[in-house]
Amino acid sequence: MKINHKQLTFAREYRGYSQTDLSSMIDGLSQPNLSKFEKGLSTLSDELLSKIVSFLDFPFEFLSKNISNESETAHYRKRTTITKKDRTDIENSYKLIGYLVDEMADSLMWPEFTFKTLDIEDGYTPEYIASYTRKFLGLRPDEPVREICNYLEVNGIIIVELDAIEKFDGVSFVSDNNHPVIVLNKNFSNDRKRFTIAHELGHLLMHSINNPAIPKHREKELENEANTFASEFLMPKEAIKNSLYSLRLSYLAELKRYWLTSMASIIRRAKDLGCITKDTYTYLNIEFSRKGLKKDEGFDIYIDTPELFRKGYSMHKTELAYSDFELASAFSLPVDVIKRYCETNRNQSKLRVLI
């Protein structure tokens, strides 16, 4: 079996150990030797590797895998304050979710990706791409995006909810086997989830799928493009603009209920579309904060539930008759990883087992 040294780093970091901590717990393992191995500069005996992965409670076969699932568009709230440990846990989590999506695809057929991708570099604006995507989905110009998860999933984007820290909103990427995935923080309000899903859809359509690697210096620009896409996708300019002139706080609840977006995003939309002045925007935000609405807008809105990933897990358990331990063995993962990311309510969705 060919050993991939990066997988040992993955397993160590997933369990939360530093090189020094791990080497102190394994007889015959020194930190310098572990460091050299993880850099690909030296080897460790199979006996020593077996001790390490046994301590980490990972199958030995995990070391032969090559889990990448890189994302150029990870979206963190208050990114500068997130700790390295939390960031590593989130990154390892979405990489494992992508790996699980790929492993399930050996037995299941995920829906085909059918969205049209358009390249910003070809002159398309985020607003145009959002409008085009709405038309593709058959949405009327004045229609809110009600079943947002279903729209994405029937067209081949797999949405997975993750129990994550407050500083993480979501991330989108294309898995190692080319399945588009959005990982979403399950702990936020529905309006924030909806905007995050739309934001990540923008990343997938404009920046990730069928597009080349994006330079790091464009990171802020990419975020602005995804936000612009999300705003137009959820609150189309031509449909919402007339209702944003002379905007008052008393109008916001009704607009939120109709468009299924937060009051805060509606105020921002009014400013961005030139429907209110900068002074009015400042005043509304001050009043919004004074009334405590920044922390809690008073009521939540509807969002449908992502189904594909949990249904894929359910079908492995029922139609394919796998236990969690058998799934862990088949996927070369610890059983606690299966339980952490897969064990949830099992909804119905249109998937079929491959013969």
Structural summary, described in words:
The protein has 355 residues and is α+β, with helices and mostly antiparallel strands. It folds into 2 domains: 5-64, 434 Repressor (Amino-terminal Domain), CATH 1.10.260; 75-290, Arc Repressor Mutant, subunit A. 49% of the residues lie in helices and 7% in strands. The strands form 2 sheets. A 4-stranded mixed beta sheet has the order 1-4-5-3, sandwiched between helices. Strands 2-6 form a two-stranded antiparallel ribbon. Helix 6 crosses helix 9 and helix 8 (190-208) crosses helix 9 (219-234). The model is unreliable at 345-349 (pLDDT under 50).
Ordered list of secondary-structure elements with their pairings:
Elements lengths: L4 H10 L4 H7 L5 H8 L7 H11 L18 E2 L7 H21 L3 E2 L16 H11 L11 H7 L3 E5 L5 E7 L5 E6 L4 H19 L10 H16 L2 H4 L8 H11 L3 H10 L5 H13 L17 H10 L6 H8 L3 H8 L9 E2 L2
Parallel strand pairs: 3-5
Antiparallel strand pairs: 1-4, 2-6, 4-5
Helix pairs in contact: 6-9, 8-9, 12-13, 15-16
Low-pLDDT segments: 345-349
CATH architecture of the largest domain: Orthogonal Bundle
| Helix-strand topology string | HHHHEHEHHEEEHHHHHHHHHE
Gyration radius, rounded: 23 Å
Task: Estimate nothing, just give the exact number of structural domains.
Answer: 2
If strands are numbered along the chain, what order do they take across the biggest sheet? 1-4-5-3
Shape: elongated
User: How large is the count of helical segments?
Assistant: 16
CATH topology of the largest domain, by name, is: Arc Repressor Mutant, subunit A
Helix content range: 40-55%
CATH level-1 class of the largest domain:
Mainly Alpha
The total beta strand count reads 6
Secondary structure category: alpha+beta
Give the overall pLDDT as a whole number: 92
- Report strand %: 5-15%
Biggest sheet, in brief? 4 strands, mixed
* Straight-line distance between termini: 29 Å
